[in-house]
């Protein structure tokens, strides 16, 4: 009875905190030596951030994977930013996921291949890099997330040029397949139960058409879209099986809206930042707090956070005034509530870590 009461009281406290708008301190993750841009892609439950560091490019956002010299990094509050490097003789890498044991996954290009042919890689907690390879005959692959058991989700080309979702267990690759008639399928996230979520693309259009999916270890389920929609993507999944991503639909008037699917597969429209008309969800934690980005009335992209009690809020309204930051995108949130992504500061994009003020 005591433990149940404690949980109930904690839930009330958390709900009250979110209703009154959680605020955050902000930490500049910085850049690797010689760079001026960076982005944080994932934060584990210990506050370790991984991402990539790069030089400024014409696209206006960091880490396109097209500029020689882009390197994966790992950052901790005690150790700062560490260059994870690339496969031997390669020039580009990016870190996209990290588990609580400090094992990092992502991609690197390969010496002797065209610069944009990447292979999925894994870095051990000591920094040793392993090429996870591709499906048979494939020219490229990528690893997007790793769970606490060391299982990895990603994708790989086939010899036919089609891309299928993949997983790696003990560094051995498995073809998870695709939804029917898909031409490109990626496993973008994996939870501690081994469930993989992602997207299957049917056509690049216009209109672009795709559906989010969930793979439970044996079968792939089509998650569908909001009513009347033609596109959805599943970008993250928490331990309870709640999935975050985006979809269009009749009600979204041709734009993507951030959505969640509950463990039964029911989709929910999370709406938009007040004044905006689109939003995308990239991360979700075990409290089902969702992060991503959306636009304002002037179409500027701003990082957002969504909770069931507070709805969607512009993260820029929840950091100290006069910080000099404009938070553009939030990619990941851990179970402590820390958030990473990137924003502009001093005219350049930098990775950030937000920490809740309790």
Give the class from helix and strand content and strand pairing.
mainly beta
Kindly report the spatial arrangement of strands forming the biggest sheet.
1-28-27-26
The low-confidence runs, each spanning 5 or more residues with pLDDT under 50, are 1-19
Helix content: under 10%
Number of helices: 1
Taking the sheet with the most strands, its summary is:
4 strands, antiparallel
> What is the arithmetic mean of pLDDT?
93
Radius of gyration: 19 Å
- CATH topology group: Methylamine Dehydrogenase, Chain H
Q: What share of residues are in beta strands?
A: over 45%
* Total separate domains: 1
| N-to-C span | 27 Å
Tell me the name of the CATH class.
Mainly Beta
Overall 3D geometry? globular
- Written as H for each helix and E for each strand, in order along the chain, the element string is HEEEEEEEEEEEEEEEEEEEEEEEEEEEE
Please describe what this structure looks like.
This protein has 358 residues and is mainly beta. It has a single domain (24-357), classed as 7 Propeller (Methylamine Dehydrogenase, Chain H). The protein contains one helix and 28 strands. The strands form seven sheets. A four-stranded antiparallel beta sheet has the order 1-28-27-26, with no helix packed on it. Strands 2-3-4-5 form a four-stranded antiparallel beta sheet, with no helix packed on it. Strand 27 and strand 28 (348-357) form a beta hairpin. The longest helix is centred in the first third of the chain and has 18 residues, at 2-19. It starts with a helix and ends with a strand. The model is unreliable at 1-19 (pLDDT under 50).
């Amino acid at each position: 009875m005591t433990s149940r009461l404690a949980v109930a009281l904690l839930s009330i406290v958390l709900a009250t905190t979110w209703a009154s708008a959680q605020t955050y301190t902000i930490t500049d993750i910085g850049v690797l030596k010689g760079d001026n841009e960076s982005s944080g892609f994932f934060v584990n439950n210990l506050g370790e951030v991984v991402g990539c560091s790069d030089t400024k490019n014409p696209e206006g956002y960091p880490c396109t994977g097209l500029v020689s010299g882009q390197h994966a990094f790992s950052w901790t509050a005690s150790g700062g930013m560490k260059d994870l490097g690339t496969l031997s003789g390669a020039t580009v890498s990016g870190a996209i996921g990290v588990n609580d044991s400090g094992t990092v996954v992502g991609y690197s290009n390969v010496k002797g291949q065209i610069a944009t042919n990447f292979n999925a890689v894994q870095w051990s907690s000591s920094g040793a890099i392993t090429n996870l390879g591709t499906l048979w005959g494939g020219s490229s692959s990528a690893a997007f997330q790793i769970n606490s058991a060391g299982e990895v989700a990603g994708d790989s080309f086939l010899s036919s040029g089609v891309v299928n979702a993949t997983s790696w267990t003990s560094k051995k690759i498995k073809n998870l397949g695709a939804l029917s008639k898909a031409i490109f399928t990626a496993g973008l996230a994996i939870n501690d139960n081994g469930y993989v979520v992602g997207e299957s693309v049917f056509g690049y259009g216009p209109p672009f058409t795709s559906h989010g999916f969930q793979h439970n270890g044996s079968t792939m389920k089509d998650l569908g879209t909001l009513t009347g929609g033609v596109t959805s993507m599943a970008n993250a999944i928490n331990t309870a099986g709640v999935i975050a991503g985006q979809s269009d639909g009749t009600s979204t008037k041709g734009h993507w809206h951030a959505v969640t699917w509950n463990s039964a597969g029911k989709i929910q429209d999370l709406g938009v930042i007040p004044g905006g008309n689109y939003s995308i969800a990239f991360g979700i934690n075990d409290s089902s707090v969702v992060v991503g980005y959306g636009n304002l009335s002037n179409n500027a992209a701003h990082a957002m956070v969504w909770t069931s009690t507070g709805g969607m809020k512009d993260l820029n309204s929840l950091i100290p005034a006069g910080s000099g930051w404009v938070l553009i995108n939030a990619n990941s949130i851990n179970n402590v509530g820390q958030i990473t992504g990137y924003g502009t500061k001093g005219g350049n994009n930098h990775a950030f870590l937000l920490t809740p003020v309790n």
